[in-house]
Amino acid sequence: MALTIGSEAPDFQAETTEGTISFHDWLGDSWAVLFSHPRNFTPVCTTELGYMASIKDEFDRRGVKIIGLSVDPVDNHEEWSKQIGDTQGTAPNYPLIGDSDFNVAKLYGMLPADVEGDPTKRTPADNQTVRNVFVIGPDKKIKLLLVYPMTTGRNFDEVLRVIDSLQLGVNHKVATPAQWKNGDDVIILGSVSDEDAKEKFPGGWEQPLPYMRIVPQPS
Residue 73's domain is classified under what CATH number? Predict the structure, then answer.
């Protein structure tokens, strides 16, 4: 079955630039972002890995671990990381999985189960579906799944925005409206009764519709 929001993120063991990991053990009780790449030494991915490294402290501040994946052997990652640092200003400062047996890409539904062979003989176009972002919660469930084409660089500021929204929802039982930015008003979840909402939000709320209760963002 295809992975969707709410699916358990598959566990796996893999070699990374920071040693062998068991994914669920590596996650621990943290949030995480797993983002994948079709091959090393590709231009759009080079910019993405560099930008992600440059804002890693923003993920750290939110208690979110970062891990990248490329369908390339780990020993190719070192040279690519150097090139990323030289051209983007920041080299990867998080682990990169070497998925040379395609195991993780298959587990996460990014490549067909029958893919095999030498990963270095495959072109980026052969692996063009390995362009996903998974946000995974401490419960090991997928909270966000984004799929990008090879020609469009990913917006990791948007990933941070979604994580802020998700964490607000977990901590305060609120949802965020269209175009929400950190600090904007939020919406009390429909699963919260008025009685419970009065305890959580003693200042009250605006209610422009029977099913919409708007409050300032909790701190």
Answer: 3.40.30.10
**Does residue 188 share a domain with residue 147?**
no
- Domain harbouring 203, CATH code: 3.30.1020.10
Active site residues: 45, 139
**What is the extent of the structural domain holding 86?**
13-152
How many whole angstroms separate alpha carbon 47 and alpha carbon 44?
5
**139 plus 181 within the same structural domain:** no
Phi, psi at 193, each rounded to 5° = -70, 160
Please give the model's pTM, rounded to 2 decimal places: 0.95
Is residue 31 within 8 A of residue 64, CB to CB? The reply is yes
* Per-residue pLDDT tens digits of the chain, which is 219 residues long: 689 999 999 999 999 999 999 999 999 999 999 999 999 999 999 999 999 999 999 999 999 999 999 999 999 999 999 999 999 999 999 999 999 999 999 999 999 999 999 999 999 999 999 999 999 999 999 999 999 999 999 999 999 999 999 999 999 999 999 999 999 999 999 999 999 999 999 999 999 999 999 999 998
- Assigned token pair, 61: 């501040």
